[in-house]
Write a structure and sequence with these properties.
Layout: E1 13-23, E2 26-35, E3 39-44, E4 54-60, E5 67-79, E6 81-91
Antiparallel strand pairs: 1-2, 1-4, 2-3, 3-6, 4-5, 5-6
Protein name: PilZ domain-containing protein
Organism: Agarivorans gilvus
Domain PilZ: 6-91
Length: 92
Amino acid sequence: MIGEANKRAFHRMLINAELKVWVGQQSYSGLCKDLSATGMGISLKDVKLAIGDEIEVALSGEGVAPFSAKGKVVRCADAGDIDYAIEFSSLS
């Protein structure tokens, strides 16, 4: 049973789409695993980000409308590939 603390205001859409990530002037390729109105879950190989890092992302792929956003890292988990939760600050 889902408790009140675990209910999300915005549901996640599970996807596997190619993602381009910019941290400052450096760019990386990754995978968007899920997307909601306020953020996304991403996976990056061999890239170490820290909570609070400001990033830009661009999502593309078959069956996915082009999408770009600015945001910050709000959660990190290292399980093989490194997974991050990103909270959007602006969308375009």
